[in-house]
Amino acid sequence: MKDKVVLITGASSGIGRALAFAFGLEGATVVICGRKADALQAVSNELRQAGIHVLALTADVSVEANVKTLIEQTVTSFGKIDILINNAGVSHRSMLIDTEPVVIQKVMDINFMGTVYATRYALPYIQLAKGSIVGISSIAGYRGLPVRSGYSASKFAMNGFLEAVRTELLHTGVHVLTACPGFTASNIRFSALDAHGQAKGETMRDEGNMMTAEECADHILKAVKNRKRELVLTTQGKITVFLNKWLPTLMDKLVYNTLAKEKDSPLKQ
Ligand SMILES: NC(=O)c1ccc[n+]([C@@H]2O[C@H](COP(=O)([O-])OP(=O)(O)OC[C@H]3O[C@@H](n4cnc5c(N)ncnc54)[C@H](O)[C@@H]3O)[C@@H](O)[C@H]2O)c1
């Protein structure tokens, strides 16, 4: 990764932060982006202390002009972008019947349109570098998950978008990776939106019993180095993707019953 410039969206916590360390410790220059300047600065300081060359830029990925500026500032600073990691994301937890559509719009704007903006504006530079475009998707991008219909939709959209882009770029030397973590300990469940768009502020799962963000980032780093097409993480995630392909009706019941056991689940057991 020496001499590579890696742009990571949503890097002030969780998997994005861990990716900044993973790529940075391999010698890459990392450009980290997030909405909150304070949180971003704190991560930037930690990265610098670890000897990593870092630039922190604030941007809301759901705002096209912000993302355009983010790409321009990165190129002005370093002259290129080798790897773009579309990581910024938000979830929601509410039954569709209760959910204000604007909540689903917000999830789509961040998870999907954020990926569209960053990929579109970074693409000329990634093509020059014959670099990599990475989407941090989810198992929810292969198997629709109840109580997260908008989140699943945004990750299905991301998967389809990146598959199409990968095919468009087949003869250009650009690598496109769809990375689908399973449950990973992070902020994602705390910041998940409720039916009215407020952060839940709590998790409904045992965060201590999950893959860590650092383990997840190591798998993604390896997949980028090996220019893999797709990465599906955790045994549970792999089984879910496999069974859903061949036994989707059985999976409706299995997924329902599993997620009905989550604390405060609105699904009836
Ligand atoms: N943790 C999991 O269980 C899990 C599983 C599968 C996929 N993912 C995906 O991994 C990615 C990272 O999530 P995480 O688990 O590290 O959670 P996280 O909440 O710790 O990280 C998400 C990051 O995105 C940032 N972000 C949110 N909205 C943004 C916006 N509009 N503009 C810029 N930044 C924004 C947040 O501030 C945060 O830093 C997400 O795309 C998520 O969907 C997570």
TrEMBL record:
PROSITE patterns: ADH_SHORT. InterPro entries: KR_dom, NAD(P)-bd_dom_sf, Sc_DH/Rdtase_CS, SDR_fam. GO terms for cellular component: membrane. Keywords: Oxidoreductase. It comes from the Bacteria. One of its GO terms (molecular function) is oxidoreductase activity. Transmembrane segments: none annotated. PANTHER family: DEHYDROGENASE/REDUCTASE SDR FAMILY MEMBER 7B, DEHYDROGENASE_REDUCTASE SDR FAMILY MEMBER 7B. This is Short chain dehydrogenase. It comes from Spirosoma pollinicola. The lineage of its organism: Bacteria, Pseudomonadati, Bacteroidota, Cytophagia, Cytophagales.
